[in-house]
Hints:
The chain is of the alpha+beta class. It is built from 9 helices and 8 strands. The strands form 2 sheets. A 6-stranded antiparallel β-sheet has the order 5-2-4-3-8-7.
Amino acid sequence: MNKLITELKRLYFLDDQRSTPGGEGRLTAKTLAQSLVGESAVELDLVGADGRVRTLVVEFEKAGDWQHAARLYQAVQDDLGWPAPALSVAGHQGYAIWFSLAQAVPLAQASAFLAALRAAYLADLPALRLGLHPAADAPARIRLVPGRHPASGKWSAFIDPTLGGMFIDEAWLEMAPNQDKQAELLAALKSIKPAEFESALGTLQSAPPSDPAPTAAEPTSPSEVPARRRSTFKVGGDYHDPQSFLLAVMNDVSASARHRIAAAKALLPHFCNGVADDKSAN
């Protein structure tokens, strides 16, 4: 069994984990391996045969909701004392935050926790742009990460949270992420202990609802975009391959943040797979 499958099972799988490409039946090693290389799209059933849950997922439907995802990611650590959760891009739009419980809890308790989490930290985000999994009144299935999105053909992947802002425009990878690198990201994570979960649930359910945070209006025309956000490219033209050019753009402080992020994102699969060009890296 490869390292990535080992880490996925350690953090998110139930003892009787069920799923197939259609979402029914027991998840087999063959089906799991096929999903991780893009040959099928597997959905995990988050609720076990005994009605208990050990994986909680908060999905943000739009890539532009990164600020909300980042706020929640940090809040559960600062306010609730939880270990860092996993963060993934969807392969289509948006992000997901994955919470791993060391001990499974009843579905009703898991749903109540997610509802309290939303009220505390995401009250300003419209319900249609947020997915809470599992929910008591909806199918408790979520696509396995990493995997190829069946509609877009792009790849979902677990990412370093410090790189989340790179995916605001396009929340996916163009190619399959390196499985060993994905395993390394997950290996650093810990499951939430029963006492930590119970304490957090009590804290959230006793807290008063938060007021929606004000959001700044986005510019509606180029003339309204502040000068610091406009592109001022000063990268020269003496480049012999695309990778060298993209590295120059990424490191050019005179380029706009949007262009630098786009360049970094285009380079990310090469570095994730350990095949960065030595000449460009020097």
